[in-house]
Amino acid sequence: MLYSLGIDSGSTTTKGVLYDGKNVLRMEMIPTTACPQQSIRQIYEALWSENVGYTVTTGYGRELLTEADKKVTEITCHARGAAFLNPGIGAVVDIGGQDSKAILLDRDLNVIDFLMNDKCAAGTGRFVEVMMRTLERPVAEMDDFVAGCKPLNISSMCTVFAESEIVSLLAKGENPGDIALGVIHSVCRRTAIFAQRLKLEGDIFFSGGLSRFRIFSEVLEQYLNRPVYTSPAAQYAGALGAAVIGYRKLI
Amino acid sequence: MELIKELPEVFEDFAEQRKNSFLAVKELKDQGVPVVGVFCTYLPQEIPAAMGAAVVGLCSTSDETIPEAEKELPRNLCPLIKSSYGFAKTDKCPFFYFSDLIVGETTCDGKKKMYEQLGEFKPVHVMELPNSQSEDGLQMYKNEIIRFQKVLEEKFGITITEEDIRRATHLRNEERKALKAFYELMKLDPAPMKGQDLFQILYGSTFKFDKEKVVSEINAIREKVESEYKEGKCLDKRPRILVTGSPVAGGAMKVVKAIEDNGGVVVAFENCGGARSIEALVDEDAPDIYQALASRYLSLGCSCMSPNPNRYRLMGELIEDYKADAVVDVVLQACHTYNVETMGIKKYVKEQYGIPYMSLETDYSTGDIGQLNTRMAAFIEML
Hints:
heterodimer, A: alpha/beta, Nucleotidyltransferase, domain 5, five-stranded mixed beta sheet, 8 helices, 23% strand, globular, B: alpha/beta, four-stranded parallel beta sheet, 17 helices
């Protein structure tokens, strides 16, 4: 039995997926350290066995693993991974650690167009991370933290300016949960405006680190005005896509 | 099939031409040859060439002088404008330093306002370029060409005859024909060379002052590439990309490099320095040579024209003739006219030709090279 291995070396986390052509056998995720090469190697060593016949790397650090048989961009991999998790979709919105992308698929789930945000942290996972740090709350508690809150308007797009805007809101005595929900709305609104430059059709799959919070899917759905799906494995979409592409090379 | 590994030395010669011309321009200057510095493709080079002047391009493409420019100009401005102004201010570019006269045109807002400031410390003449390619516009541009000639005659105390202009026109046409015949080699599939190498030749030729020599050199390079192609020297089969939009020389060349590093080949350049500035000839035998010059130059399809049908027309021809698989539209940061025009161009490319299109905004820095590579690789994976 031959497996394929997909590794997504992202800016915040490094993910690996082991795939047998039908099912995901293992998924691993670790934080990407200041030495991304080490992180990608750690995942590779954790998942590699003699049964692995093909390894595909993707993400910012995709060039860093010499053992990789193929390097594929995160655009193609996210599309393939998302289509694997939810074959009925027409587009993918991915909010990653340092960029966001919108990918349009045709009926055969091939990429037909895509957009990436500018070289700026605005509207990305990093933006949310910085804001939660300012609010002194762990990112992982996001959903509970904003439950029942009313979003405040955060007008700054720039991560640095938005941070000082939050500091002023805190100084005015605003409820931190309302501020956090405001940040979520700001990210989703920006992502939706950006994604709608592509003529989105059909259902949307939401991937990337933020997809594990229910609130992001809900708010994104409001702004995109169409059904948004995600999956518990959505954060692994890139690595999964890489594994699926790799498996095709095996047969 | 043998792949091209090393290009003929003459490619190097052209690639280094801009630098080599620094000395050449000084020598010309020492011999008393006037130097006219120009910015834009709309400038009828035949007029200064007719008086025997050396014509040099001043559009700057390096981010080296941008910090200097940003002491005065706004940050949120096109890098070409900032870089050019910075070079003028610091006199780091010998072409600025040796130019007896700098000529600009009222093209985009950023440039024309920059020329006002440049005129404070450099000898600047600005030609008034109409906003649209109408009959009235044509008449106006013809008058502007005549006025430009008078400015030169007064400044240098010479007379430019019609015969001089016709002779210069003929020579420029010969150069255009030679350059066109050269880049038409890219119609071959697989392509005979990389777009980066092709562009170096086109760009380098603008810094060679002996135009008769340029014609014979270009013809020689074309024949060499042609005969090597027949022997089987060419690139592997790659997706064929048409590059359009803002100028890509210098700092913005990173986009072409990213396309070609990630498996594509740029087969045509619909931009300044590429087909846009070379393709059309001047009617040498027209009874009114000024009319002929005005109609050739004003017809160029830059986004500062409104509307801009000739850009669409030329792009369509290039897509068909060069069998482009996709279009990449390069927009220099804060270049509003090209940026807004991406909407129409995207629609045109997708609906008329059914091929993928991507636009991207960039500058002369190296900060976005990682992202550029990802974008280009993904775009090419999609083809």
